[in-house]
Amino acid sequence: LQSLLNGLMCYKPDDPIEYLESCLQKVKELGGSEKVKWDTFVSPEKKTLPPLNGGQSRRSFFRNVMPDNSNFPYRRYDRLPPIQQFSIESDTDLSETAELIEEYDVFDPARPRPKIILVIGGPGSGKGTQSLKIAERYGFNYISVGELLRKKIHSTSSNRKWSLIAKIITTGELAPQETTITEIKQRLMQIPDEEGIVIDGFPRDVAQAISFEDQICTPDLVVFLACSSQRLKERLLKRAEQQGRPDDNLKATQRRLMNFKQNAVPLVKYFQEKGLIITFDADRDEEEVFFDISSAVDSKLFANKEAAAG
């Protein structure tokens, strides 16, 4: 194989199939593959190898005889499918050593783990507002995953990897999963003494949820803000006018809404099966929504304290 590739790179034949077939014929003449060396098909004299089958190559034979036969089991010389878009995570030129996923404990196993509340919902459902209110009421730390990524993009604008991620987010697609998990892990390790942490806008799909549990922990509570599509669109348009976020453009907004619709049902079902999620009607006034969330958090995470106080 190496010899064949060397020959191909050296000669760059117009018809590589015919060239390879000629090389295989030469292998037979030499007495088998054990006689082939790395430079067998790379000689100083660039002589044209003789065609097979008395001047007619097998390729032209197949083309002339069976090119359009629908009963033929396969097309011998059909092109291979294109290679899929490369993975940002697996591209070594784009990876940074500090961001490689390692097996380590995010929280000190010798200390009590902080309570983790995940707040999920469609774009414009009020995740940020409600997350901040929860964090303020219970003295928890607040992490916005979207803001975390936007700050990283802004601070590393010359980095090729993060430039690509910025384009991905601007079109309304999800940022690469392992990059997002890594940023969350690094942020959590900066706040080891918190009693609780509210994470806004994560996970976006089941794969992210599983990755979060595998690499960080199982959340104590998941708050799902259910909101009608019409209300989401209205809020996003209003936010675009007020904040001018790059991912609030019309095309990105439509894409984000579509991604949410596709991923919301399986994601909610995943957490429902684990008994971790509570759903709230987010079409209402934000104070009404927060009152219901507070009651649920009190009951789910602080039931013992309430009993002691009562």
Automatic annotation (TrEMBL):
GO terms for cellular component: cytoplasm. It is found in: Cytoplasm. Keywords: ATP-binding, Cytoplasm, Kinase, Nucleotide-binding, Transferase. It catalyses: AMP + ATP = 2 ADP; a ribonucleoside 5'-diphosphate + ATP = a ribonucleoside 5'-triphosphate + ADP; a 2'-deoxyribonucleoside 5'-diphosphate + ATP = a 2'-deoxyribonucleoside 5'-triphosphate + ADP. Signal peptide: none annotated. Transmembrane segments: none annotated. Belongs to the adenylate kinase family. HAMAP family: Adenylate_kinase_Adk. This is Adenylate kinase isoenzyme 5. It comes from Cathartes aura.
